[in-house]
Write a structure and sequence with these properties.
Layout (H helix, E strand, L loop, with lengths): L18 E5 L8 H6 L3 E5 L2 H7 L6 E5 L9 H10 L5 E5 L7 H6 L4 E4 L4 H11 L16 E6 L5 E4 L1 H10 L12 H15 L7 E3 L10 E6 L3 H4 L3 E7 L3
Parallel strand pairs: 1-2, 1-3, 3-4, 4-5
Antiparallel strand pairs: 6-7, 6-10, 8-9, 9-10
Length: 245
């Protein structure tokens, strides 16, 4: 019987990671992967019953999307009051012209309100600020797709990246590229070519960086994904990093 590999001391158990309760329609959870890559353990709830039940798991913070099709009318506001009564801070996400204005959300107990579309960097910053005591979020074991980062097309500057993306770049590319949050020349040249191809209507293609002779690092692949300018910034692309099998 093969012996089990020793546990990785650099990877904390799930229970050691900050736990977030995300109340959002399950069909529209674009932020879940970014939150998981940023080191958070997620509890997902799509309705009032699951949200209230999720409180029993002891989340450090609740992120509530006020657009819940399962709760028409004042249902989302009623749920917000119940969640806020638990003394767990609640961060709400809503549209600028929603049925519940920011003033009503704050009166119902929201700790902080963000208007959609929400920048990933703003959301992560608000989450860290609301958690008390603020536990340190740590990268989790990579999953596919591995990580994401927003990159400015003009010069390859990484305007935000998950901790996992930062760790992968540091492991695959020597300074100064990782230290200054910029793409190395080979990746930047590919990004420019790929962006031109995409604008011409060509199908997506990826770039895979293979280790040089004698190196022990794994291969690292890059794929471009177009994103909303309001989320990642005008003139930016969402870069997905993956370690192929």
């Amino acid at each position: 019987m093969p012996s089990m590999p020793p546990p990785d001391p650099t990877r904390p158990p799930a229970s050691a990671r900050p736990r977030l309760l995300v109340v959002q329609a399950l069909a529209v959870q674009p932020l879940a992967a970014v939150l998981e890559e940023s080191g958070y353990e997620l509890l997902r709830a799509a309705d009032a019953l699951a949200a209230i039940d999720g409180l029993s798991a002891g989340p450090a913070l609740v992120i509530m999307d006020m657009e819940l099709p399962e709760l028409p009318g004042d249902g989302p506001l009623t749920l917000l009051r119940r969640l806020a009564a638990s003394a767990v801070p609640v961060l709400t996400l809503s549209r600028p012209r929603s049925q519940q204005p920011v003033e009503a959300l704050l009166e119902a107990g929201a700790s902080e309100c963000l208007l959609k579309p929400v920048r990933m960097s703003d959301l992560l910053q608000r989450i860290e600020g609301l958690m008390s005591p603020a536990p340190m979020a740590v990268p989790v074991e990579p999953r596919r797709p591995t990580a994401r980062m927003a990159v400015r097309e003009r010069d390859g500057h990484c305007t935000w990246q998950t901790p996992q993306a930062r760790a992968l770049m540091a492991a695959h590319f020597p300074p100064p590229w990782a230290e200054h949050a910029r793409l190395p020349p080979e990746v930047l040249a590919w990004l420019h070519r790929e962006a031109l191809r995409r604008r011409a209507g060509a199908p997506p293609s990826s770039l895979t960086i293979a280790p040089r002779a004698g190196e022990t690092r794994q291969r690292l692949s890059f794929t471009l994904t177009a994103g909303d300018d309001a989320d990642i910034g005008e003139g930016h692309w969402l870069l997905v990093l993956d370690r192929p099998e």
